[in-house]
């Protein structure tokens, strides 16, 4: 028998080189330093400045055409930003003016450092709600508004520090752990919670629970039915509703730009731990939304966004914000969508928006004093309702049941527990799925497609036929400690089942087990021990183990651990076809010389 | 162009069926109910009893030959069990007699329920040490020996309950999360710690730290240099050493069998939480060792051990033990090795050992009163030194650097921190590796092996040549939310690099990107969105995306999400060879009709 192709063992690499390579792949997958290669130092400095301040890159090439577009879009976004800002600040139990402050400084910071051309910076609903619920557990915003305000600034500061340092440490990929399904469920849950909170304004209740879960809110609502403003007409009589509810005003709105709040940061308060936790969680949620939005629009317009760079920009923007009376900002979907559809060209639209808000702050704030609370509630609810993306949930159900479970758990967790519980449950289930993929890898029997040397999963290709005397098994995951025992059991069961089947059908008895390693990306020492045990067990049954197409990494380790040597390189084939041909050839030889076979059987 | 093979979409399965199937694979991979199929009810009952009490299976077939072997091996093991039991009980800060009690009842229980023929049951060093360190944090064994003893019984009870319930719930696979590398490092660390603890006896110190970490122990030793029994001759003068140290005796050893300790279980003590935690951790470590040992010997002798069944047996044995003045027992390696080499045949050797220990308890215990502590220390140290398996660590370094890191972290964690810290660190690193495999999957460029239609990794096979105008990329892991963003970046970079290379070398410009999906075991909705984005990005560059060999699960989801429809089934090939042939054919057609190509380029 002649083996046409040998499975190569990759050339050995020095340890330091392979370590460097894998660290690079882990932390610098996008190779951000590529453009710095082979450049003079002065050019490197310029490129470095461009890297951290993209404004230096686009400002020199800015045209009058761009300015026209950016002016229009900036002013459009500002007109959305003002009522939205006030609403979300109320949601965070903060003075409404903070919503305006937060639409002034952070957009300016982002315009310098951000790389998205479509993002319009501002506060967002979910982190606002999170701030209210997490800080509210520590300090009552109504009883001690000043401390609460200071803690909110401090949390924003920590969120900024956390975001910037993750970006600097190239750990932006942790955002990826929030899967699409988690975000769909989480957003819908948060939207539900926010809408429920608006029952306070809509029913005109003075007392309301600080908890966010469905049970507490409903209990709070139904325990004071006598307090319901039945006059507000059970959603029926809109005019009366407005007349009565307009009695409640937003509160005092002072003229003037952002006061400096650097001195308000509370680093030594007893609430430091809660503040840091709030900062980290709101920070993560904040930039998860911002980066997702930025990426979507970048894809539409075909330019590139660097997640880590964006995180640095978001971080710096929040640090700057926390020192100038702003709370957590990011790139909300609604503003980016308005910005995009108004035709923005560069981040200058953020500057325009900031200037528009500045004028409002300087001259127009008293007007907003008369904004009725019920209008704000209506703004919030209408914004929230688009976040309940039930179509996405249906799509998840149709395509991937597991993702649907993740989505629904996030929703239920948020609505019945708290925002954190929902998030933790959904992330735990998502990670469990990843672990389960490795812990319980699929193994399958391959068959021969008619008139070819192609071997494929017999379940997927029902016309694939099995090869007499040979069992071809494919493993669909790396062989690691978490699945080594499982695979040992499972492979033994495959062989048992195949022998049972053969016994009942009277085919040629089993002689070879081919393990197809194409999809085995890696193996660890537990996995190698498992292979050794399987080989022993298969030998003991009087069968022979053959490997097909092990990859470079696997081959390297099998070689180092002497498994290749023990097994014999001639039992490792490059393709399944060649492995089967090799087995068939051996079977043929054995048939023409039955004594050897009998002897082999007796020996084992 | 004719496509010879179509990629099949697996026939749709009802949701309930596929759920049932995957639950079965997760919890019943060994299909324990297989033998119950198609049996009459009476037979099922017998088989069920056999399942839980393997003794019913082997006892009727027991022969005189077996008895001879089991008698010899049982008595041999007993002669080891007695001094070892006393030593380990001292290690756990428990009365030494408990070591003997624990070699009487639990082996009897195991002989009924256990399925290993080689395991000899008894106490083990590491859980003994863990008990001392974890309970010692709550209650001082010297100041309050009675409470400490009761807590030890209670912890043993919880360990038993935990083991049995994991077994009943088919969750035995959590043991798999302790990788081989973790165990090597952990055992070596624990052995080091145990040896350090023996310094107390060897140097004859009265006061000693209760902490187990290296720093505390060394501080404790060197802070009382004046207390050192220099008479013991700084390891030099052995006779003197013995003479002096034999002054310390083991303590009182009462005659008589195990007293009942059911009433001593403390379920309502303030230490309940610590007791449960101790029980769970010692329970896990205990059966991890027991099952690993049982499996190794079963492999030697070619019989099968069911992990879940063993866990039930261990659990019941510890529950029984906790009610009869025993503490945590399992199947220690040393005893099993002695049992095996003395020629044991069945679990009856455990019964013989138990009877031998019973006679000792009834008649011989006063003799052991004169066992010098230093001898016990020597027994422990000599047993521990074999646990420091530095050769295994060297093997890990040679074969798998990551496993070596896991091993060393476990060691360092145990020696410098505590047993729990070491375990948690090592498990976290091991799991991180599994996650990292998915989060940062390897992608590689495939090339054509000379004179074949085989395509393999160009790094592993340096003679593989690339196909002009076609980039063939293989992804080595499932596409999940954790790696979707990474893959998007990485694939874009591959295409960039390929276009740079082509530009500099002046080859045919890139027209096709083939993504080889053979090793992509599964995909979730985030992954599908990523593929859609990649397709758009590739289209926008004027290239064409082609898939090769997607598996059943992937194909099913791509079909459900309409990706197959959008892409066109004709762009999905069964093999890389066919995909390349298809691309070449198209390139040929385009060359002969250059207008179309130019138009296509302009359009994008």
From TrEMBL, chains A, B:
GO terms for cellular component: membrane. Its main location: membrane. InterPro entries: SLC26A/SulP_dom, SLC26A/SulP_fam, STAS_dom. Belongs to the SLC26A/SulP transporter (TC 2.A.53) family. It is a multi-pass membrane protein. It comes from the Eukaryota. It comes from Carya illinoinensis (Pecan). It is found in: Membrane. This is STAS domain-containing protein. Signal peptide: none annotated. The chain crosses the membrane at residues 148-169, 181-199, 232-250, 271-291, 311-330, 342-364, 370-390, 402-432. Pfam families: STAS, Sulfate_transp. The lineage of its organism: Eukaryota, Viridiplantae, Streptophyta, Embryophyta, Tracheophyta. Residues 460-583 form the STAS domain. Keywords: Membrane, Transmembrane, Transmembrane helix, Transport. GO terms for biological process: transmembrane transport. The keyword Nucleotide-binding does not apply.
């Amino acid at each position: 028998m002649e083996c046409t192709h040998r499975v190569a063992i990759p050339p050995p690499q020095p340890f330091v080189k392979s370590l460097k390579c894998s660290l690079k792949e882990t932390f610098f997958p996008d190779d951000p330093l590529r453009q710095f290669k082979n450049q003079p130092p002065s050019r490197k400095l310029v490129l470095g400045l461009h890297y951290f301040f993209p404004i230096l890159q686009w400002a020199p090439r800015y045209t009058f055409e761009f300015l026209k577009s950016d002016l229009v879009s900036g002013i459009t976004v500002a007109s959305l930003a003002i009522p939205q800002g006030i609403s979300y600040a109320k949601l965070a139990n903060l003075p409404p003016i903070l919503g305006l402050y937060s639409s002034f400084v952070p957009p300016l910071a982002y315009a310098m450092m951000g790389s998205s051309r479509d993002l319009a910076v501002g506060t967002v609903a979910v982190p606002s709600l999170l701030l209210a619920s997490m800080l509210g557990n520590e300090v009552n915003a109504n009883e001690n508004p000043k401390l609460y305000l200071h803690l909110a600034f401090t949390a924003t500061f920590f969120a900024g520090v956390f975001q910037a340092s993750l970006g600097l440490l190239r750990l932006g990929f942790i955002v990826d752990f929030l899967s699409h399904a988690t975000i769909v469920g989480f957003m819908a849950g948060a939207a539900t919670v926010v809408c429920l909170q608006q029952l306070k304004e809509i029913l005109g209740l003075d007392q309301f629970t600080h908890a966010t879960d469905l049970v507490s809110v409903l209990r709070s609502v139904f325990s004071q039915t006598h307090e319901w403003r039945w006059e507000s007409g059970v959603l029926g009589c809109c005019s009366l509703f407005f007349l009565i509810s307009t009695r409640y005003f937003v509160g005092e709105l002072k003229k003037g730009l952002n006061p400096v709040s650097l001195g308000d940061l509370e680093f030594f308060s007893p609430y430091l731990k809660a503040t840091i936790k709030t900062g980290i969680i709101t920070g993560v949620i904040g930039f998860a939304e911002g980066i997702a939005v930025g990426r979507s629009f970048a894809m539409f317009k075909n330019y590139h966004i660097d997640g880590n760079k964006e995180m640095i920009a978001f971080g710096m923007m929040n640090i700057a914000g926390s020192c100038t009376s702003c709370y957590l900002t990011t790139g909300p979907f609604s503003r980016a969508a308005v910005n995009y559809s108004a035709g923005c060209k560069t981040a200058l639209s953020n500057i325009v928006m900031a200037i528009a808000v500045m004028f409002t702050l300087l001259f127009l704030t008293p007007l907003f004093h008369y904004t009725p609370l019920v209008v704000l509630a209506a703004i919030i609810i209408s914004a929230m309702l688009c976040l309940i993306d039930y179509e996405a949930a249906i799509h998840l159900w149709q395509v991937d049941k597991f993702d649907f479970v993740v989505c629904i758990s996030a929703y239920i967790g948020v609505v019945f527990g708290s925002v954190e519980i929902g998030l933790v449950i959904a992330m735990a289930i998502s990670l469990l799925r990843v672990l389960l993929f490795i812990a319980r890898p699929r193994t399958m029997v391959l068959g021969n497609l008619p008139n070819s040397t192609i071997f494929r999963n017999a379940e997927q290709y029902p016309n694939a036929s099995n090869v007499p005397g040979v069992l071809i098994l494919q493993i669909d995951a790396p062989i690691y400690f978490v699945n080594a025992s499982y695979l040992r059991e499972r492979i033994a069961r495959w062989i048992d089942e195949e022998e049972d089947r053969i016994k009942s059908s009277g085919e040629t008895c089993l002689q070879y087990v081919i393990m197809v390693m194409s999809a085995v990306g890696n193996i660890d020492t537990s996995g190698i021990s498992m292979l050794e045990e399987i080989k022993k067990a298969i030998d003991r049954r009087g069968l022979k183990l053959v490997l097909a197409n092990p990859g470079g990494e696997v081959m390297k380790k099998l070689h180092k651990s002497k498994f290749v040597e023990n097994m014999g390189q001639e039992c490792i084939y490059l393709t399944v076809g060649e492995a089967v041909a090799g087995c068939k050839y051996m079977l043929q030889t054995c048939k023409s010389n039955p004594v050897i076979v009998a002897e082999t059987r007796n020996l084992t």
